[in-house]
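Check my protein:
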Amino acid sequence: MINKQVTTIIIKLGKNDNLNSTVSTYNKICQEIINYGFENHTFNKNKLHYGTYKLIREKYPRFSSAMVQTARDHASDMLKSLKFKVKPIKKEYSSIRYDKRCLSVMFDKKKISINTMFGRLKLPLNVADYYLKYKDWKYTNAQLIRRKYKNYFLNLQMEQSPVEKQKEIKVLGIDVGIKNIATLSNNIFFNSKKLRNIKGKYQKQKSDLQSKGTKSSKRKLKLISGKENRFVKNVNHIISKQIVNLPYTLFAMENIKHIKTKRLNKTMRKNIGNWSFRKLMSFLEYKAERLGKSVIYINPRYTSQECSHCGFTDKNNRNNNLFHCNECGYELHADLNASRNIARIGISDFVQGAVNHPNVA
């Protein structure tokens, strides 16, 4: 079994005066509870409740008991996080929390029912088709956020019960690198040439802006950095999704600290040497877990020197992208050879781990 999976669904609610009043009042209540907790040096929910609940209910009669309790829990968490070093401040329209006491989500009816100062507000559940795959997941809590132009968004946190691990073991080795972001032991390559070109353009733009040092250039630099980060994140999502949907149940990868960039020229290191391999791995992990598949990390020592055909190991076997075994004469792409060695080590480590740590019912 695996840990529960969690995801967030974003729902646009648009502008709403009812929500404006509710958010503003919620934050006032939350701040009053924070003030009490800070003055009395406590974040204990029971103490906050007995010290503030009656007064708040009298002062804000339109606010339901459930909403006051949610604000109390929110205030408690804020006090706890800052450990009384400074007093937390809730802005008038900062995000507020909802839980099952105050919010109902009905995927079948495509509606949500949200608690406000003026009773329950029923709104359409407008979500992209992409999110419909989560309709059978369990809603746990939500955040109501006001963004630009007073538009409201509801961030729903959804939880999936643990998925049973697939019993069949079919391993895929993945060699992560710079020239090829990922090389799979089934002969699939994810080449970085196009990515290097795009990253190179971003690097050039950033370098030009950094040399100017003006306020406007700094603003543009921030925008370009954001675009670059989103580009990297999107590519990692695409690659990890394609890999995890292949007919394999175990994905073997090298530990992140072993990725080498020293052999590359300066331009290539700059353009893609800071690629977010850790993010790629984390995406692959959670996508695999959702399908009941596993990811294992191995020490890739000698995987680039060892022949995946006969096992002969020699540093002279590899010459840049070509692997030629000096013992048996076997030839193939060096990254492909490494990925096959990673697959072999991965299945061995996985089976050994299962033997050493058997599941006990």
Summary: The helical segments are 17-39, 45-59, 65-82, 193-212, 215-244, 266-272, 277-290, 334-356. The longest strand covers residues 5-14. The chain has two domains: 5-160, 171-356.
